[in-house]
Amino acid sequence: MKDKKRIMSGMRPTGKLHLGHYFGVLKNWAELQEKYESYFFIADWHALTTKYNQTEDLKDNVKNVLLDWLASGIDPEKSTIYLQSLVPQTAMLHIYLSMITPQNWVERDPTLKDLAKIMKDKQENMSNLSYGLFGYPVLMTADILSFNTHFVPVGIDQVAHVELSRDIARRFNNIYKTDYFIEPQPLLTKIPLMKGLDGNKMGKSFNNDIKISDSEEITAKKIKSGITDRNRIRKDDKGNPSNCEVIFDYWKIFASEDEVSEICEGCKNASIGCAECKKRLAQKVNEMFAPIREKRAKYENNDSLLKEIIYDGSKKASKKASEVLDGAVQAIKMYR
Ligand code: TRP
Ligand code: SF4
């Protein structure tokens, strides 16, 4: 038990999560929590780095993310689930790390460059980029180092951030002549990328997603709108599943090999039409998500339980982060 390696990861509170999050992130976390001492957190401070003036939905967004995590099997008995702003030790470590991080390391951060570009493209001038936003990668480093984390399960888009965390950990150790901080490593897992219903990357802002929390009816309706083999116009046209990049790909995620080859045959010899194929797929999706949605609904009506889970988790996280912070403060030789 004691020498389990630690992992930590988090997400900004963007609201209700979709099946891309489920297959890309949550399912993986739920498996990892069996093997590692796990910390999963909702990055509400990170949300403020860009949305400091749009906080109307913040509470709801945090709640929805938490609901989707719990529904997907992130288990508060196995993992420490916490809210970033309820673990102030992170902010304190951030201060110390910000002192030793060269400014040009932060400016090099590719995600930050992207964000700056997006804001520029939107005709907002650079002065709208806040001081806090430039601290984004350092704050993320503080999240990670707060638990002296061994591995950080993240998607490929976050790897550069984790690399920077390694650099900062190494720099801390060099400056204060210690081996206090573990250099965290990204933990990349092979993950089937789930396309959106229009064939692009699944994403909330593209209006092409299926939410974990969608009802069975909405799920079916959305799947009905998914793109298929464009050459198959009438029902008695023979189809080609390999040109059906969304619906047929989904079949491969949701059904057994036998079922997939049955659909493949039926499509090729036109014995099954697209409407029927999608209807059956929707049933499959709804079947798989029924228990998850049921669990979500149970938590949804229990605000006090949700609060208890996040406060208990944050207390646990604070305790660990506090120990780690104390060691860092000692290494720096602060007056104590
Ligand atoms: N930057 C991550 C994202 O945008 C969220 C995040 C913040 C994070 N701190 C973290 C992820 C620490 C992993 C570890 O999704
Ligand atoms: Fe795609 Fe199914 Fe239509 Fe074939 S029958 S083109 S697999 S939706």
Largest sheet: 3 strands, parallel
Overall mean pLDDT: 93
Bound molecules: tryptophan, iron/sulfur cluster
Number of helices: 14
Shape: elongated
Indicate the percent of residues in helices.
40-55%
Backbone structural class: mainly alpha
Q: Give the terminus-to-terminus CA distance.
A: 33 Å
DSSP summary, beta strand count: 5
Outline the low-pLDDT stretches: none
Helix/strand order: EHEHHEHHHHHEHEHHHHH
> Taking strands numbered 1, 2, ... along the chain, how are they ordered across the largest sheet?
1-2-3
Q: Report the radius of gyration as a whole number of Å.
A: 23 Å
Proportion of beta-strand residues: 5-15%
Properties at a glance:
336 residues; mainly alpha; three-stranded parallel beta sheet; 14 helices; 5 strands; 54% helix; binds tryptophan; binds iron/sulfur cluster
